[in-house]
Amino acid sequence: MSNNIGIHDLEAATAHYVLPLDALAEAHGIDPAKFHRGLGQDRFSVPAPDEDVVTMAATAASRLLARHPEHHVRMVIFATETGVDQSKSAGVFLHGLIGLGPHVRTVEYKQACYAGTAGIQAALGHIARYPDEQVLVVASDIARYALDSSGEPTQGAGAVAMLISADPALVAIEPQSGLYTADVNDFWRPNDSSTPFVEGKLSMDAYIEATLGSWDDFTARRELKVTDVDRFIHHQPFTKMARKAHAALAAHTGVELGDELIEESMTYNRQLGNAYTASMYFGLAAQLHADTDLTGKRLGFFSYGSGAVAEFFTGVVQEGYRAHLDAAAAVEELSAREEIDYPTYRALHEAHRTVSDDYDVEPVTQAPFRFTGVKDRVRHYAVR
Ligand code: HMG
């Protein structure tokens, strides 16, 4: 049994278009400061018609595995709350697109934004049992709220693919977790709706309560002071929410916790919007890509998914981690997005298909994988 298990490498991808929140503010007659300062968001990613969670996941995962041609992936866990089928796992579409061999266990996990963390924890268990194998965990989501709703400025899209293995090059996940589950109706998406229902204020309170609940469970199981954590990475539905959680943790523990402990983890999410399951892992990517050398430092992760489940866990940044990262590619991924105006964004949102009758989708993006449409009620994809 190996105990030194964690995130060996990661890669991120997002959608083709981006909407500046200034454009949304102008169209809605809202002071843009409400979005920039009030929510801590500047822009959000908007998918093109030939993109979905599978294409974003495939882009991230194929880049990741290209750096590890000798990988030993034995399990694929696809975490999403934007599933493309009620039965077939999005992971199976992904598996085919990136050309994995047949002898792989492939599943989809769901519990709102928390599912990526459930995937990581399952992967750690798998590697503890089979230390020579690796698990591909991909978190991929599209946050699409109703037009003109208060959730609209907190939309976004993105995928993070992570290779979980023994003796990881980036972050070794430490054994103990703090857990918290409570049945709360703060945010949900019924089967017949393409956008979620949200109790905004309740969702923020439930997030804080679950976060602190997971912290209390953690400290009851492991002796660790809040000052033993060098950086915190929170789930970021909008970056101001991470600041609120950080302040709540400081009040709860009675320890002053400076903003510098979370600041670097928020640079990508401000520009990306909410990527649900991938949001906290975009936070991790931003933190690892930042200039600060974190070798040997402890990261504390607060994962939250509405409904609600939260988990606090820690990881130690590994010696030499910087040599394995490609920060420039992540920045390029964000800056390569095509900026759209408000009418274009609105038309894209309104054109979103919610039925699976047959239709073709014209190519829009230059991304390596694209969704081509539905034929005989089957979703089809193409590799460029
Ligand atoms: P709202 O009603 O539009 O916003 O909804 P508000 O009126 O509460 O204002 C937001 C902030 O802007 C406030 O800051 C205002 O003061 C400030 P706060 O007081 O809270 O610090 N503000 C201004 N600041 C500067 N200049 C101004 C100005 N005007 C106001 N002129 C809400 C906000 C987040 C509720 C809404 O966007 C929403 O419903 N979003 C979706 C739900 C959500 O993200 N909830 C977060 C917790 S739940 C979660 O994280 C799970 C989730 O990711 C889903 C999953 O798990 O799958 C969502």
Short précis:
This protein is of the alpha+beta class and 384 residues long.
Number of strands: 17
Query: What is the CATH superfamily?
Result: Thiolase/Chalcone synthase
Mean pLDDT: 97
CATH domain topology: Peroxisomal Thiolase, Chain A, domain 1
Structural class call reads alpha+beta
| Small-molecule components bound | 3-hydroxy-3-methylglutaryl-coenzyme A
Strand content: 25-35%
Can you describe this structure?
The chain has 384 residues and is α+β, with helices and mostly antiparallel strands. The chain has one domain (5-383): Peroxisomal Thiolase, Chain A, domain 1. Helices cover 33% and strands 27% of the residues. The protein has 11 helices and 17 strands. It has helices at residues 21-28, 32-39, 53-66, 90-97, 115-129, 200-221, 239-253, 267-272, 279-289, 327-335, 342-350; strands at residues 5-14, 17-20, 43-46, 73-79, 105-109, 134-143, 156-166, 171-181, 187-188, 197-198, 231-234, 298-305, 309-317, 338-339, 359-360, 369-375, 378-383. The chain has a 9-stranded mixed sheet with strand order 5-4-6-7-1-8-13-12-11, with helices on both faces. Helix 6 (200-221) crosses helix 7. The chain is globular. The protein starts with a strand and ends with a strand. The site of 3-hydroxy-3-methylglutaryl-coenzyme A (HMG) has 28 residues, from helix 2, helix 6 and strand 12. It is an enzyme of class 2 (transferase). Keywords: Acyltransferase, Transferase.
